[in-house]
Amino acid sequence: MKSETVAALQDARTKRRAVTLATRLSDAAETLVYLDKAEGALANDAALLSAARRAMEIGRSETVDLGGEKIFLNVYVPPARLIIVGAVHIAQSLAPMATMLDFDVTVVDPRGAWATGSRFPGVKVMQEWADDAFETMGLDVSTAVVTLTHDPKLDDPALEAALRSDVFYVGALGSRRTHAKRKERLAEAGITEEQFARIHGPVGLNIGAKSPAEIAVSILGQIVEARARRIEAMAGPKVVAA
Question: Do residues 59 and 89 share a domain?
Fold first, then answer.
């Protein structure tokens, strides 16, 4: 692997940018394929770009046959990330559970008395308003966002930002009545019906959860299900070009 390729991959990792390194096995020619551009020997090969981006979307490295050439697609995607808005009791159960499943977890809450390292050991905590925190972190296709505060001042800006991004999951705690009022507020903020429909609300799988820990299980189960279905939907048949 060329030194400039290594540097580009390190830069993509730092910036949480998905990228596929496509290597032609016959001569080791390298091409870096991002969602919005490509660089390298085969940067203008439409079949290669399609195959590389498909591999990126499903997060699976593979070897493909394109026009009689074997190409190894080595996929580098950001680790799955869960952003929890609201340093509440449910979050105290949800954060360590998600960490056990290798999610990169961040808890966001401007309330300093709640958002503390002692309440969330081993988890990144940001004492900021969610929309400000999102601008700092960036939202991407490997991110899930859950709002848990029940406070529109905290939850609504987070949902607005999440729904205007390409995160793979958006969930919001609250009853059906709360969710209906939430819809009215977000509509006034310019959120469309299609965007609002992305919210899982009331959040979590319907497993009869009552306690904070049980609700956390239902939420995490729904997130895992959403991610698996998205990958399955995007997988489809393998690409083989003539």
Answer: no
